[in-house]
Design a protein that fits this description.
There is one protein chain. The chain is of the alpha+beta class. It has 2 domains: 112 residues, Sandwich (Immunoglobulin-like), CATH 2.60.40; 47 residues. It contains 3 helices and 11 strands; from the N terminus they run αβββββββββββαα. The chain is elongated, with a radius of gyration of 43 Å. The chain starts with a helix and ends with a helix. The relative contact order is 0.14. Keywords: Disulfide bond, Glycoprotein, Immunoglobulin domain, Membrane, Signal, Transmembrane, Transmembrane helix.
Amino acid sequence: MNVIHFFVLIFLAEAAVAQHDAVCQTQPVKVVEGDDVTLRCRLRPSFDVTGYTVDWTRVELHQVVHLYRHRKDDTGPQMEQYRTRTELSHQNLSRGVLDLHISSLHLSDAGEYRCHVPRLSASCTQTVTVGKRDEDGTSTTKAPPIKTTEPHTPGVSAGEPVQVPVVICVSIAAAVVLTLVTCGSVRHCSRRIRRREEMLNANHEVVVLSLNP
């Protein structure tokens, strides 16, 4: 093999390496303190990274959560709070699977995690939220209450019930009841009113005639 062929092979190998991307879960991972969690990270297309460096870090802290290099785990630069609690499957590395398992999560474990393969320039991030566990074993994490908008009446403060005077309500009710009792129906009531007007007019004429003999 001459020198030209050698450099061509190196160029092709580097080009193939540069075409891989890391893919993480896009939705936040929600867990309760004390539970375990597995953070997903895959290479696309699949690629054997057994001989490559793989690191998981906390983005906002710029510190190492788990480091794999020289074909073994390196706990030297690992954050103290993660020691003995993280696991990266070495067997899955040959298939480009970089999932990280974290056991017994603490509230301080909440944050953004980055999966990174430096040689491939491939990385992705995902967010972990950790809810506090109550004494009964349930999580205290709750959804915010839904806000509703109530109609506003001019002259009345928001949220204050509109009050109608009791006297007005009683008067209206009494008038309705009296009308129904005395008239029975609208048509009958109108006839009674016309008769009463005719009687008043007749009495008025009698009075006028008596005053003018």
